[in-house]
Each structure stands twice: as structure tokens, then as C-alpha cells.
Design goal:
single chain; 178 residues; Double Stranded RNA Binding Domain; six-stranded mixed β-sheet; elongated
């Protein structure tokens, strides 16, 4: 019986840790678009991923561009600077968030039973990073697909370590299924 409880506790802890490390991923897209017709892509700003190191852009930008390029290549989209089907851009956001839990609740008897908060509540602040990837139809200029991933990060180095997996999770939902 103790072995079963221990095994259950380990499985529960493992599943909670697995959930905590994954970013929350969402996507939206234009239902009318035929995504099978898209064969090529390039960056909206016209700057290829390989040039980043020579231009001296920051490490985070380089990591995001390389990860997006690799994932789109896996999806069968070819990087093409001359008249691509899709234009790609990304946006990052960092914000401070606070998770608050109230104090424990207790009951007291005065002239009737009442519920009162007892003890201090807890607050925990953390940084939340969000990566948004937009795919834009070059011919129409319309946004046809957007993927968003967000999760807790501790600092810029932590964020950089999570970029590849976040991009992979976001683009796992492309092309969309109806």
C-alpha cells in the first residue's frame, strides 16, 4: 500500500513538472485560406537568419529566427527572398505577473457561524514571456495564421534556453486542421 501511494505521488509530481515546463500555446487562422498552396516564406523585414551574426543583432533575435527557419523547413516551406508566398514576423513580450493565494479560511462562532480569512495570503511574482509568430499572405497582405506561446521565465538566459522548444510547440499547430 505504501508503495502504491509513493508511486502515485511520484507520477503526480512528474506530471505537474511536465505541465509546468511547457508553454501555453494558442493559435488562430483564417478558415478560408488554403494553406496547402503556400510553398515558400521569408522574413517580413527582409533580413535572413544567417545574416544576423554578421550584423551583430542580439542573441535572442538570432535564436528565434534560426528556430523559426528550421521549423518552417521541417513543414516543407522553403525560404525564398524573391516573391515568397508567406511573410513571417515575430513579436516578443515580457511582463511581470503576480500570483496571489488567499490565506486559509476558518469558521468562528459569534452569534452564528461565520467564515473569516485567517492567516496571511501569499504572493509570488514571476516574469512571463510571450512569443507571437505571424504568417502573412504576401499577395493580399492579410494575416492568415498566428501562433502564440507564453510561459514563466526567470531571466533572459532562461528565455533563450526555452526559445527552440517554444517555437517548435507554436509551429506544431501549422498548418491548421479544420
Amino acid at each position: 500500500m505504501k508503495t502504491m501511494r509513493l508511486l502515485f505521488a511520484i507520477l503526480l509530481l512528474g506530471s505537474l513538472l511536465a505541465c509546468a515546463s511547457k508553454p501555453v500555446v494558442e493559435r488562430s487562422f483564417d478558415w478560408k485560406v488554403d494553406f496547402a498552396s503556400y510553398r515558400s516564406w521569408f522574413w517580413l523585414d527582409g533580413k535572413p537568419a544567417l545574416v544576423d551574426a554578421m550584423l551583430g543583432d542580439d542573441v535572442t533575435d538570432q535564436l528565434i529566427r534560426r528556430a523559426v527557419a528550421e521549423e518552417l523547413d521541417v513543414k516543407g516551406l522553403m525560404a525564398k527572398a524573391d516573391e515568397p508566398d508567406l511573410l513571417v514576423k515575430y513579436t516578443t513580450r515580457f511582463q511581470e505577473a503576480v500570483a496571489a493565494t488567499p490565506g486559509s479560511l476558518g469558521y468562528s462562532y459569534q452569534w452564528r457561524w461565520t467564515q473569516k480569512a485567517q492567516g496571511p495570503g501569499e504572493q509570488q511574482s514571476y516574469s512571463k514571456g510571450t512569443l507571437i509568430i505571424d504568417l502573412i499572405d504576401r499577395k493580399t497582405g492579410a494575416l492568415v495564421w498566428q501562433g502564440r506561446g507564453s510561459g514563466a521565465i526567470t531571466d533572459e538566459r532562461d528565455a533563450q534556453g526555452k526559445i527552440r522548444m517554444a517555437v517548435k510547440d507554436i509551429l506544431a499547430q501549422y498548418p491548421p486542421t479544420r
